[in-house]
Structure formats: C-alpha cells, structure tokens
Specification:
By secondary structure, this protein is mainly alpha-helical. Helices cover 76% and strands 0% of the residues.
C-alpha cells in the first residue's frame, strides 16, 4: 500500500476552502471574531502568507495521519510491521480480496466525522474551558474542524 501524496495535499488544501466559507462574515466569521474576542483591527497587519502557509503545513500533517483512520487497509499493513514484502502469504490474499474495500468518499467522510466529533471536538472543548471561551466558540471552531475532517477523510479515502 503506497501513500497517496496527492490525496493528502488535496485534503490539506480543502481546509482552506472550508475556512474561506466557514469564517466568511456572512457565515460564522463575525460570530467567531466576537466569541474569540477579536476585532477587525486585530485582523489587520497579520501576515496572511505566513498564516496560510503554516495552515497548509499543519493540515498536511493532519491529512497524513488521518489516512490511517479512514483507510482500513493501513490496519492490515500495520499488522505485518509496515513491510508487505516480509508478510505471510495470508496478507497478500487478504489484500487481493479486500484491498479496495470501503474506499469511497462516503466511508472516508464517516470516519472523518467520527474523528472530528470524538477526538478534535473534545480537544477544542477542553482547551476552551481553560481559556474561558464560550460554548458558541467551541461549536464554531469545533464545527469547522469536524466539517474539514469529513471532507479530508472523504478525499483521502476515495483516491486510490
């Protein structure tokens, strides 16, 4: 099983598209700024090239590990130590039978949703408790990542 670097990159870039829509002032942008304690003036002078570049790098790292969650065949690869050439014949038989099973956008989106809801939202929520952020902030910020994980998971899983 090879890593699909194009799928990982597309999934990472999808977070920017989701962010442009999600944080648009006509969607959640104004509410998010209010809940985050930010003003329009705070957003001026931000180095957007640096911000977007680092956002892509971070999303790339997320996409890389997300593939392990959304593609079941990585579990089989892990069971043989990561090197299929050293696996028993049963591994090759399994991959011949199930190598592309559950490799759809829908399936990846489901696992992305579960990862976002059960892993990312609790992390954001816990941090927000200590930062004294509102529930609305958690729902906007967490919702962005849940939607992003759904799309990222779908992209990664469907691209074989």
């Amino acid at each position: 099983m090879n890593i699909n670097w194009i799928a990982i990159l597309l999934a990472a870039l999808s977070t920017l598209v989701v962010g442009f829509i999600w944080y648009n002032p006509k969607v959640f942008g104004n509410i998010w700024m209010k809940e985050a304690g930010l003003k329009e003036e705070d957003m001026k002078g931000v180095n957007m090239v640096k911000t977007f570049s680092l956002s892509i790098v971070y999303a790339f790292l997320i996409s890389f590990i997300l593939q392990m969650m959304v593609i079941h065949q990585f579990g089989a690869l892990g069971m043989v130590g990561g090197d299929p050439s050293k696996a028993l014949p049963s591994y090759n038989a399994f991959m011949a039978d199930y190598g592309t099973a559950f490799r759809t956008f829908k399936h990846g989106a489901l696992h992305g949703f579960m990862g976002g809801l059960f892993m990312i939202l609790p992390i954001i929520g816990t941090g927000a408790l200590y930062e004294r952020r509102s529930f609305k902030y958690v729902m906007i910020f967490g919702g962005y990542w849940i939607v992003s994980f759904i799309i990222m998971g779908g992209i990664i899983c469907m691209m074989q």
